[in-house]
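Hey, quick one: can you model this chain's 3D structure?
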Amino acid sequence: MAVPRKIIHIDMDAFFASVEQRDHPQYRGKPIVVGGRPDQRGVVAAASYEARLYGIHSALPSWIAQQRCAHLIFVKPRFEVYRAVSQQIRDIFDRYTDLVEPLSLDEAYLDVTQNKPGLASTMAIARAIKQAIRAETQLTASAGVSYNKFLAKLASGLDKPDGLYLIAPEQGQAVVEALPITKFYGVGAATAQKMQALGIHTGLDLKQWSEADLRQHFGKTGGYYYRVARTEDERPVNPHRVRKSIGAEQSFADDLEGLEAMEAALATLAEEVATRLDKQQRYGHTLTLKVKYADYQQMTRAQTVTGLLRDAATLHSLAKDLLRSHLDPNRKVRLLGLTVSNLGEPTALPRLHPIEFALAAVLSLAHRDKPTSTFLEVCPLRPT
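Sure thing. Here's the predicted structure for all 384 residues.
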């Protein structure tokens, strides 16, 4: 019988907001949110625990957050600080294991089955990590300990903030069976509503369904639901997790009206995405346009090409095509976004000379429907 893995999921408590309260004593004990102000059409990026008592959470429009708490404090994000603190925390993880899979700036999986200090107790490791984070950053983290990633992430949310929770192998099935379907990682609001309409309200209800039936209703994700209902999750902790998309989006203080204004905004986004692609030495083949109308209704449209999506001119041209084909011209727009996916491997391409960017853009459009090899022949890429 295989020896159970020892997995820890670390989740920082209200990370962005906690950093601001740490650095600004006047914010401590008060409801604060990190994000754009209501008069800037902002969205909550993070809410302190004091703000959460008012029903305020991330992704909530700032004007709604202010309605729920009149004395709410809005704080401008300082992402360079959050990244620096996140690196401090990552350095602590690295003292215990090389198998660290960051999910974002404020959470990560660790596989400590074989760990650097040689400790047998996973709980002792998790406790030591939490203590080091508090001592070195003055912040608190919650830790979930279990034998797979699904259960470890579930455990980290069961005793927040500053929690430490263990789901042992003999407890896993009972915990999952009693779990409301809305608490399953990977089940969003829309999926939960669909499941409830089918009579699936708990993990036990989910377990009664066959994999074939779940796949019929939920596609390939149905296989994942089938397995986790039985506490099966063989996904390894992957320290070399490669991102699957690169994008950018922008909310506008005043709703955009008319194609000209929207295409100008897309040009700025295309430049930003191209810069990020170049910095990471990536390229892609699929461009997705995101449009959020003034009434918050959202539309996404995508196009896949055989040529390389890498430079701003090509991205802007394809984005305009998608916008003109699918936009409702009678509605105003509050947000636009562009995302490149179907990415090529890192460092697969050398950097282009600035003059070659223009040539690449023209040739990429001209050969949009030809195999990539043809594009590379007509536009050879050389290092500078």
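One thing worth noting: Residues 259-279 form the longest helix (21 residues).
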